[in-house]
Amino acid sequence: YPANYLTYGNIDFGTVKGFTVAYDLRRTAGVQLTASYTLQFADGTGSGATEAQNLVSNGQPNLRTTIPLDFDQRNAIVTNIVYRFGSKENYHGPVWTSKKNPDHSIRLLDNTGANIVFRAGSGTPYSAQSNVTPQGEFGVASRANLDGSVNGSRLPWQLRMDLRIDKDIDLKWGGDQDGKGQKMANMNIYLQVLNVLNTKNILSVYRYTGNPADDGYLTSAENQSLINAQNNPESFRDLYSVKINNPSNYSIHRRIRIGVTLDF
């Protein structure tokens, strides 16, 4: 003693500015559509408490200039399209009529509809680094050097489309012949497909390469001697490549769900 130490102070701030333009089409001939575009600017002095701590620990000044925050998504587009065939007198779908009994017909798609949601958004920021660090190794002390400004780089755009097809079925039971005391319920059968196009959206990248599957360590010239000094360099390269190919860097692939809901 005396010894240097760091303390926290609640002096960070953030400002979010933007606007949204929306279009709403009420149900017309079975079609309903909503669409919106959002332009947003999220800037501040830090996205979290540890961001300023990392700067001070590395000998950098306690910055009070605004930078893009981690959740700064400049552009966001959302479109929701709903189509329903209706029911009873509002039904406008295909009808199957029996040849033996022309008076008997079946509304094949009664109370059936589909819903498509399309989302697109520009990438969020991240801080690039100028030196290679072994992201696939444990217990290796390495320090990343900032390349450019904090959150000065951007992830690519993300696209996603979801689909849901469902049918409502009215259930009735009990009661007398006149329908008195009859119980009713509604059953909905649906097929849901998330990420219909199986888009491989990138959620995170390695800061040196900007690549979600390669941190640049295996191809860097300065690390070839360390790699070749391993017991089995070829095995080390293969296992290292598997380790850094992190599935969490990508969005979830296509998922299909079939379900039933009952309301009573």
Summarize this structure briefly.
With 264 residues, the protein is mainly β. It is built from 3 helices and 12 strands.
Average predicted local confidence, pLDDT? 89
Number of continuous helical runs: 3
Could you state the order of secondary-structure elements as H and E? EEHEEEEEEEEEHHE
What fraction strand?
Answer: 35-45%
Helix content class: under 10%
Q: What is the C-alpha radius of gyration, as a whole number of Å?
A: 29 Å
Classification by helices and strands: mainly beta
What distance separates the N and C termini? 72 Å
Main sheet makeup? 8 strands, antiparallel
Low-confidence stretches: none
Spell out the blueprint of helices and strands.
Elements: E1 14-28, E2 31-44, H1 49-57, E3 67-68, E4 75-84, E5 95-97, E6 105-107, E7 112-121, E8 125-126, E9 153-154, E10 158-173, E11 183-194, H2 224-228, H3 233-244, E12 255-263
Antiparallel strand pairs: 1-2, 2-3, 2-4, 4-7, 5-6, 7-10, 8-9, 10-11, 11-12
Task: Describe the 3D structure.
- The chain contains three helices and twelve strands.
- Strands 1, 2, 3, 4, 7, 10, 11 and 12 form an eight-stranded antiparallel sheet that branches. The protein has a two-stranded antiparallel sheet with strand order 5-6. A two-stranded antiparallel sheet has the order 8-9.
- It has helices at residues 49-57, 224-228, 233-244; strands at residues 14-28, 31-44, 67-68, 75-84, 95-97, 105-107, 112-121, 125-126, 153-154, 158-173, 183-194, 255-263.
- The model has no long low-confidence stretch (mean pLDDT 89).
- The longest helix has 12 residues, at 233-244.
- 10% of the residues lie in helices and 37% in strands.
- It is mainly beta.
